[in-house]
Amino acid sequence: MRDFDYLAASAFTQGIRANIAYPAESSVWPPRVLTIAGSDSGGGAGIQADLKTCQELGVFGMSAITAVTSQNSRGVHAVYPMPEEAILSQMDAVLGDIGAHAAKTGMLYSKDIVKAVASKLDDYGVRKLVVDPVLVAKDGSPLFRRDAVNALREDLLPRALVVTPNLPEACELLGVEEGTIRSVSDMMEAANMLLRFGSKYVLLKGGHLEDEAFRGLAIDVLAGGDGTAGMQPLTLSGPRIATRHTHGTGCSTAAAIAAYLARGFEMEHAAREAKCFVAAAIARAVPLGGGIGSLWHAAHREPAHGLQ
Ligand SMILES: Nc1ncnc2c1ncn2[C@@H]1O[C@H](COP(=O)(O)OP(=O)(O)O)[C@@H](O)[C@H]1O
Ligand SMILES: Cc1ncc(COP(=O)(O)OP(=O)(O)O)c(N)n1
């Protein structure tokens, strides 16, 4: 197992402030990311988390809002999906003018939205696509219609550079009972199985894992890439921070990967940096409201964020 190197990774993250040159591919400054996702009125997840993440990572963030949620630290009160026409119009406005080096999808809600977004991404030839298959919020509220799962599998995953499910989302996509993935070796098997849906990489996030053998660690699994068929996926491992305030971890992870990809990082490097960025934000999470508090996205700027 490769250990996660916080010191090296966070030095890289902090390099943004030190004016480290952007990789050649992103020499047209600034790198740009389009997030296609739902709005979280509480500011912790969804579009709000994505844009905060982009800004913190030196990337210009843009949005196409798929649904408005009335949400706070205690849960989701209501979901108002946007008409497909409005979503596509936002995508046209952004991609037809400003352009994006990478795109990220989050809450897509329904089959029709998934299909429309997939086809529009094709129209613009977006290659660096991060698909976060958002299905359920932390409080258990559904953020999707059941018909969206099949459309995610068939229409979006084959277009994705990377898909970033958590464990319940992975079970849903694989059509197995929730709770089936119980260990790191189950995660590796599941990640390899998810590759069959056609994304180039799968980052299976282990925030929900309760594996006694890895107590105290937060472990993700990265599978896929060139020439890795049949090879053991990588594990990305970091300390598990003892907090219940983790609202927005999934969105922020996917947005950070998109930001690093837009800057020209390779997938493994982008995933490791994203994990480091999110870990710092969890370590400094803000216990706002009476429920699950949100990440503090500026934490990586603070030298004493508790992870070094
Ligand atoms: N308590 C924690 N301490 C450190 N890292 C965590 C913690 N909880 C989740 N993570 C990390 O945050 C990222 C998001 O994971 P996860 O919670 O599984 O996703 P989601 O928010 O979509 O449910 C992963 O990289 C995971 O390892
Ligand atoms: C509008 C919206 N999109 C996505 C989520 C899920 O976000 P995530 O980062 O997985 O965080 P939790 O909800 O699991 O804390 C959301 N809640 N709202």
Structural commentary:
GO terms for molecular function: ATP binding; hydroxymethylpyrimidine kinase activity; phosphomethylpyrimidine kinase activity. Pfam families: Phos_pyr_kin. This is Hydroxymethylpyrimidine/phosphomethylpyrimidine kinase. It catalyses: 4-amino-2-methyl-5-(phosphooxymethyl)pyrimidine + ATP = 4-amino-2-methyl-5-(diphosphooxymethyl)pyrimidine + ADP; 4-amino-5-hydroxymethyl-2-methylpyrimidine + ATP = 4-amino-2-methyl-5-(phosphooxymethyl)pyrimidine + ADP + H(+). This protein is α/β, with parallel strands linked by helices and 308 residues long. The protein has one domain: UDP-N-acetylmuramoyl-L-alanine:D-glutamate ligase (3-Layer(aba) Sandwich), CATH 3.40.1190.20. The chain is 34% helix and 18% strand. It is built from nine helices and nine strands. β5 (129-131), α5 and β6 (162-163) form a beta-alpha-beta unit. It is globular. Residues 1-9 and 11-27 have low confidence and may be disordered.
CATH class: Alpha Beta
Largest sheet: 9 strands, mixed
H/I helix tally:
9
In order across it, which strands form the biggest sheet?
A: 3-2-1-4-5-6-7-8-9
CATH architectural type:
3-Layer(aba) Sandwich
**Helix vs. strand class:** alpha/beta
Catalytic activity: 4-amino-2-methyl-5-(phosphooxymethyl)pyrimidine + ATP = 4-amino-2-methyl-5-(diphosphooxymethyl)pyrimidine + ADP; 4-amino-5-hydroxymethyl-2-methylpyrimidine + ATP = 4-amino-2-methyl-5-(phosphooxymethyl)pyrimidine + ADP + H(+)
InterPro entries: HMP/HMP-P_kinase_dom, PM/HMP-P_kinase-1, Ribokinase-like
Domain Pyridoxamine kinase/Phosphomethylpyrimidine kinase: 40-295
Keywords: ATP-binding, Kinase, Nucleotide-binding, Thiamine biosynthesis, Transferase
